[in-house]
Amino acid sequence: MALQLWETLKEAITAYTGLSPATFFTVLALVFAIYYVVSDLFGPSETHQARPRSVDEVPPLPPPVQLGEITEDELKKYDGADPEKPLLMAIKGQIYDVSQSRVFYGPGGPYALFAGKDASRALAKMSFEEKDLTGDISGLGPFEIDALQDWEYKFMSKYVKVGTIKKTVPVTDGSSSGEAESSETKDDTKPAEVSPSDKPAAKSEEIPSGGEVVNE
């Protein structure tokens, strides 16, 4: 029975297509192969649909917030430890929002130790030592000054300035100066000393050559 159906199918293929059964099935297999290749190239796939979804899941960065003038201790709060706060860094006393480069300056980044600080000296010397994490740039050489200038230009062109570091002014003791002034005033009003020549001569007893004291 199956043999009769196969013979009937072969005759039908030859009659309707003019092709031999082997050629017909070969062409049919090629058509299916081409269909699957074309559908993979141009048809929608799960991989292509998943990419825009992952991009949408990343929240956009909030706009930089101007902080004005803050102290160095206040700047330490923006070192990236709190993801709700912006990531800040200062150079030459100017504070910049570097949140867009969190991969570099955030926790785990290669420059994470610079975040939340004025790292001018460390940038100039390209140093990662704790003692150089300061805004003090005194004693730097010309090449280090040039390197620091390049860093500043980079920060100014790439990041938004959001504040400055408050300068601490040493407090002087006004009481000591007041005492000094009062003492000087007292010295000015002091009466002039009387020289020995101006003093009246003391009454002396004259002793005659005889050695006896003469009473007046």
Walk me through what this model shows.
- There is one protein chain.
- With 216 residues, the chain is α+β, with helices and mostly antiparallel strands.
- It folds into two domains: 56 residues; 98 residues, Cytochrome b5-like heme/steroid binding domain (Flavocytochrome B2, Chain A, domain 1).
- Helix content is 44%, strand content 8%.
- The chain is built from eight helices and four strands; from the N terminus they run αααβαββαααβα.
- Strands 1-4-3-2 form a four-stranded mixed β-sheet.
- The longest helix has 22 residues.
- The radius of gyration is 48 Å and the shape is rod-shaped.
- The termini are far apart.
- The C terminus is likely disordered.
- It comes from Ficus carica (Common fig).
- Its main location: membrane.
- Pfam families: Cyt-b5 (PF00173).
CATH architecture of the largest domain: Roll
Helix-strand sequence: HHHEHEEHHHEH
Largest sheet: 4 strands, mixed
| Strand element count | 4
Q: What is Rg?
A: 48 Å
Backbone shape: rod-shaped
Structural class: alpha+beta
Average pLDDT rating: 75
Q: What percent strand?
A: 5-15%
| Number of spatially distinct domains | 2
First and last CA, distance: 184 Å
Helix content: 40-55%
Strand line-up in the sheet with most strands: 1-4-3-2
